[in-house]
Design brief:
The protein is about 50% helix and about 5% strand. It contains 26 helices and seven strands. α3 (about 35-50) runs antiparallel to α15 and α14 crosses α16.
Length: about 525
């Protein structure tokens, strides 16, 4: 047998194991085989029916992986250390360093907070605060708590947001049973059940009864909203009552009382308490036997890391959506299950692969073939703020609170610099990349925000990063080189260096010339884009 044929045979056997094949190893091996980066790359190439694109250079890799894992660009010192390393496995070492960084948990907690909170309608007389949830989830992610355990906590928590932050999901949805049923299925299972709320789903197999059986798990949860302080929101057990399916055809008729039942058929007897119901639902959702849970997580994270999901949009596994590279999706989902829903192991697998490290498309024909090359992606608002802090030490300034008045009894909380940037660049993480637009609000904030403007100041007395750089570097070429590394985490290209030095020479005032350069770099599309 030729080596090529042998490799293909081994690959096919391995794939069959991951997607439920009945190979000998699947039946007899004491420990199931595990996916690794080379196997992932081989499977990708097989599914694409073409080789992967070559890997990106070291500078671009470090910026890409740092943004993806810890939500900011690398510092000049990090770039220098990485570029100066001669270790053969320096990319893997960088990945391990980033996974161990506390910023890893904070970055991905922000992603999931946005995912959960983006479609929550604001309640009356109070302002929602996701900071406790983000802090709790960041700790869990940094501890590498298994994803199934995290989601069981999110779905079954009770108490106040400030005391038990995982209760945020149920609390901020106001314990609304129908809304929670729809969002639980969409976010954690990538199933669109909303259309089955009033009638059988017109484009899928879901029945109206199934939607309301799922909603019955939440029927005994109640929420108490405080005035003007979201973290005081509390989830309690009503103590009684069963869920009644509303009769939309004839509102005068009493609704049908529903037994809590999961989408795979498991039922829970009536009469159970709120916590018992939600704990049972959480177990069913986060179970290895659930056909959607692992696949949904894998699809979401893959989409954020790779520029698109196997299913697009990422919250819809419906029959109208055709999966791209389904065998790869199945294999990665099986690996995620086999790892015990190990979050860091999954990120480690993706980032070490050539599939992740591919260069950007060099031809339009490549851009039309998903996953055959790298892609660009817009940064979230919290990632842009963190990168501004890294690049120019942007301070996070919060104005003083506004006192209530007779006309405004509940003044909104003051918005910090972080809040303003995050709000301007916010988008629904469930959206497709092509549906996330640049906006005038973003451009105006980057050009006119007071705190940003104060950092674009070259005067010696300003004490800014730019001021210190120019005082330390009298040579313009070196100063340009360092400024590019600060803002874009790379050295300038020859044409960029030439144009920049020509501008500096043409302006009579060195400081003002470099202010122009800094302003241009932070307002460039590259600064707010992962490449």
């Amino acid at each position: 047998m030729s080596s090529t044929v042998f490799q293909r045979t081994v690959l096919t056997c391995a794939v069959s194991l991951f997607i439920g094949g009945s190979g000998i190893l699947a039946d007899d091996a004491a420990v199931p085989p595990r996916m690794n980066a080379p196997l992932l790359d081989a499977l990708m190439a097989q599914e694409l029916k073409a080789p992967l694109s070559p890997p990106i250079g070291d500078e671009q890799f470090l910026r890409r992986v740092t943004l993806d894992l810890v939500g900011r660009q690398p510092t000049p010192d990090e770039v220098a250390d990485f570029m100066g390393s001669t270790a053969a496995d320096k990319r893997s070492q960088a990945i391990e360093r980033l996974l161990a960084d506390p910023e890893f948990g904070r970055n991905w907690a922000a992603y999931w907070s946005d995912t959960i909170g983006y479609r929550i309608p604001p309640p009356e007389l109070t302002f929602l605060n996701y900071d406790p949830f983000k802090a709790w989830l960041a700790t869990r992610l940094n501890e590498n708590t298994s994803w199934d355990e995290v989601i069981r906590d999110v779905l079954s928590a009770t108490g106040k947001v400030k005391d038990n932050p995982p209760v945020t999901f149920v609390a901020y949805h106001e314990a609304h049973a129908q809304r929670l049923a729809s969002e639980t299925a969409r976010i954690f299972l990538s199933l669109q059940l909303g259309c089955a709320q009033c009638h059988d789903h017109p484009f899928d197999d879901w029945k109206r009864e199934q939607f309301h059986e799922l909603a019955a798990y939440f029927t005994r949860a109640s929420v108490k909203f405080p005035w003007n302080e979201g973290i005081e929101t509390e989830v309690k057990d009503k103590g009684k009552g069963e869920y009644e399916m509303p009769n939309v055809q004839d509102p005068t008729k009493k609704g049908t009382e529903m037994t809590p039942a999961f989408l795979t058929g498991e039922k829970l007897p009536k009469g159970k308490s709120d916590v018992e119901r939600r704990k049972e639902l959480a177990q069913l959702i986060a179970s290895d036997q659930n056909p959607w849970f692992a696949k949904s997580y894998v699809n979401r994270v893959w989409a954020r890391m790779m520029g698109r999901g196997f299913y697009e949009p990422v919250d819809d596994f419906g029959p109208a959506v055709t999966a791209v590279l389904p065998a790869v999706h199945e294999a990665l989902s099986a690996e995620f299950k086999a790892s015990g829903h190990d979050v860091k192991a999954f990120f480690r697998l993706i980032t070490n692969s050539q599939a992740y490290q591919q260069q950007l498309a060099v031809a339009e024909s490549m851009a039309d073939r998903p996953f055959s090359s790298g892609t660009t992606g817009k940064l979230r608002g919290d990632e842009i703020f963190a990168s501004l802090v890294t690049a120019i030490e942007l301070p996070n300034v919060t104005p003083p609170k506004v006192a209530p008045t007779k006309e405004i009894r509940f003044p909104p909380p003051p918005k910090s610099t972080r809040d303003l940037v995050a709000e301007a660049f916010a988008f629904d993480p469930s959206s497709r990349v092509e549906d996330v637009s640049r906006t005038l609000q973003q451009a105006m904030l980057m050009m006119n925000n007071d705190q940003l403007q104060k950092q674009v100041d070259a005067r010696p007395e300003s004490g800014t990063v730019l001021s210190k750089l120019l005082q330390a570097e009298p040579d313009n070429r070196t100063a340009v080189d360092r400024l590019f590394q600060l803002i874009l985490a790379r050295k300038p290209r020859d044409t960029e260096l030439k144009l920049t030095l020509e501008h500096v020479s043409a302006v009579n005032h060195r400081g003002e010339a470099f202010e122009d350069v800094l302003w241009s770099l932070i307002n460039s599309a590259e600064f707010t884009t992962k490449r």
